From TrEMBL:
<comment type="similarity">
    <text>Belongs to the strictosidine synthase family.</text>
</comment>
<dbReference type="InterPro" id="IPR018119">
    <property type="entry name" value="Strictosidine_synth_cons-reg"/>
</dbReference>
<keyword id="KW-0325">Glycoprotein</keyword>
<dbReference type="Pfam" id="PF03088">
    <property type="entry name" value="Str_synth"/>
</dbReference>
<keyword id="KW-0926">Vacuole</keyword>
<dbReference type="InterPro" id="IPR011042">
    <property type="entry name" value="6-blade_b-propeller_TolB-like"/>
</dbReference>
<feature type="domain" description="Strictosidine synthase conserved region">
    <location>
        <begin position="1"/>
        <end position="59"/>
    </location>
</feature>
<protein>
    <recommendedName>
        <fullName>Strictosidine synthase conserved region domain-containing protein</fullName>
    </recommendedName>
</protein>
Length: 165
């Protein structure tokens, strides 16, 4: 995570053969995998590249990968400096890294969830910039007109109504 190097992989598992293989390699801190409604492609996000990739599973583009969306909303000048400065990386590694990293990383102190259309356009954005309700959201699931939020910082799940009555 500190190096921000593309060491990540997306693996696929075939339960019939009990085999796991690499679907995508060289990802920058991969997370957040989602299948399209028709299961013809998947989207995987790369935290340190501030983007999500679309990997085609079916059709004429099967096996191809393209940028789905660049998410500049999460960029942080402090994190950019840390990733581009060897001295700052060493300082963070030697200091109480987890505690110091939480101080400089805005994701630990805020929350944001973006609803993205199949064409990669942002439909809407939900934000708690100061983390008053929830911070460091790591998962979101829409169910029965609510958005349920998971966080590594909280001992609860957030529930956000999507329709105002």
């Amino acid at each position: 995570m500190l190096e921000a190097k593309p060491h990540g992989q997306l693996l696929t598992y075939d339960p019939s053969s009990n085999e796991t293989s690499i679907l995508l390699d060289g990802l920058g801190f991969a997370n957040g995998v989602a299948l399209s409604r028709d299961e013809d492609y998947l989207v995987v996000c790369e935290t340190w590249k501030f983007r999500c990739l679309k990997h085609w599973l079916k059709g004429g583009s099967k096996g191809e990968t393209e940028i789905f969306i660049k998410i500049f909303l999460f960029r942080s000048d402090v994190l950019e400096f840390v990733h581009n400065s060897n001295a700052s990386k060493h300082l963070l590694a030697l200091a109480a890294f987890p505690k110091l990293y939480k101080v400089i990383n805005p994701a630990y102190r805020s929350a944001m969830v973006i609803n993205v259309a199949a064409d990669g356009n942002i439909i809407r954005k939900f934000e708690d910039p100061n983390g008053k309700v929830i911070s460091f959201v790591t998962s979101a699931f829409e169910f029965e007109d609510h958005l349920y939020l998971g966080s590594l910082n909280s001992n609860f799940n957030g529930k956000l109504p999507l329709k105002i009555e």
